[in-house]
């Protein structure tokens, strides 16, 4: 009886440690990179997250630097709010939710001039699936030769 009790305790501890690794929260590092829209979902959209200070949103061919962003990974899906200058130079505040589906796919829903729901909604906002672009090692090559 004692052996069986010890086995249950060991199994419980193992499950607890396994869940801790499985449920680790997402972090900013997980979304760094260049993300482009999948399929024909609407306008040309890409999101480039270079570092914590530089993020660029491309929407219908116009590049907009993100201003005053905030990402809250404690929520599920994460809340991702930011501002951009629109074509009239006024500031546009955008609320969004973002979910990291896997290392190469994110689900992103934008809400402009409307309340953000706690979960993805088919009746509000614009919903996009973005895939991570693979970095070509040759595209970032720097010439070290002196001319």
Uncertain parts = 4-24, 139-147
For the largest sheet, list the strands in their spatial order. 4-3-2-1-9-8-7-6-5
Number of helices: 1
What is the CATH superfamily?
Calycin beta-barrel core domain
What is the makeup of the main sheet? 9 strands, antiparallel
The topology string of helices and strands comes to HEEEEEEEEE
CATH architecture identity? Beta Barrel
Query: Structural class per helix/strand content?
Result: mainly beta
Q: How many structural domains in the coordinates? A: 1
Q: Taking all residues together, what is the mean pLDDT?
A: 74
CATH class annotation: Mainly Beta
How many beta-strand runs? 9
**CATH fold annotation:** Lipocalin
Q: If you compute it from the alpha carbons, what radius of gyration comes out, rounded to the nearest whole angstrom? A: 21 Å
Share of residues in helices: 10-25%
